[in-house]
Amino acid sequence: MRSLLVSFVFVCGAILAFAPSGGKGSPPGETYKQSEDGLAKEFEAFLKAYHKGDDAGMDEGFAVFRIPNAKAWFAANFSAEDAAQLSAAYGQQVSDAQNSLIEDMNHAGAGNKFGLHCEARGDVAPETKKRGSDTVVPVKPVRVEQFLMEFQALGTREKFLFMANFVYVDGAYRFVGGGGGPFWVKK
What we know:
By secondary structure, the chain is of the alpha+beta class. A four-stranded antiparallel sheet has the order 1-2-3-4, covered by helices on one side. 42% of the residues lie in helices and 20% in strands. It has helices at residues 2-18, 36-42, 44-52, 55-62, 70-77, 80-109, and strands at 114-123, 145-153, 159-169, 172-178.
């Protein structure tokens, strides 16, 4: 009985040691190149899960695009008042992006395998607060990189473009807004 208990504890420990990170971003120690190819590689787990129709896998695969400890990241880069508001809104921003991407993929070829080509569009110019603007300005420079991504359904050859903005934090690109700039910039 004792050896069975020891074996059980050993197996549980091994499972926990190699288990996925629970959807909180990239697994510990996993990094991606700060490049077009690195961004495309980050999407691989999400795209595989989409092809399999694995909703939980899609959530876990897209989690790499969330800023780890977003509350602390916003606090380090924005005023306390702005950081609290941005941190509170951030989770919804990422969820909306994931849902929008899945919707576009469904229109282009539900259940298909997708190929992805990423094109760097350069850094998004830092904004300055304008009179009457809702734009939030960081307290220190934040490098935001913009990418145009072309997703192509391999079965139907249908494709669509998705423009998004990312910050590179802890070895991976983290989503901070779609379209022309990060979500804290109101146009």
